[in-house]
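Narrative of activities, Objective 1.

The group set out to show that a structural description can be obtained from nothing but a protein's sequence at a throughput compatible with the screening campaign. Below is one input-output pair from the validation batch, recorded exactly as produced.
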Amino acid sequence: MRDFILSRVVYHTGLSYLDLRSKCRLKDFSEARQVLVYLLYENADMTIVCIGKMTNRHHSTISYAKKSISNYRTIPYYDDSKQMRMLRTIEKEIKSFKNRSRNERPYNRT
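Output recorded for this entry:
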């Protein structure tokens, strides 16, 4: 699941994995990181410390990013922002991916 989420964020932002790990503080980079952090925490069952190691950030930064996205989701003003649209799109893709994975049966060699 972690790799799927990472690939979707990379695809939708046009950034590379190295860009997401970089120390760059430009708005596009930081918003993409926040979305990645939120999705990993909510869908990949990863801890804040583990996500921090993956994104090259301190665990307190990860906690802040997760809380920021959670708060933005409750404020209608942010509902139409580029960041929230991307988040909703990726969440739909994750849901579709989970449904597809559940429906696939392992190959039986009998």
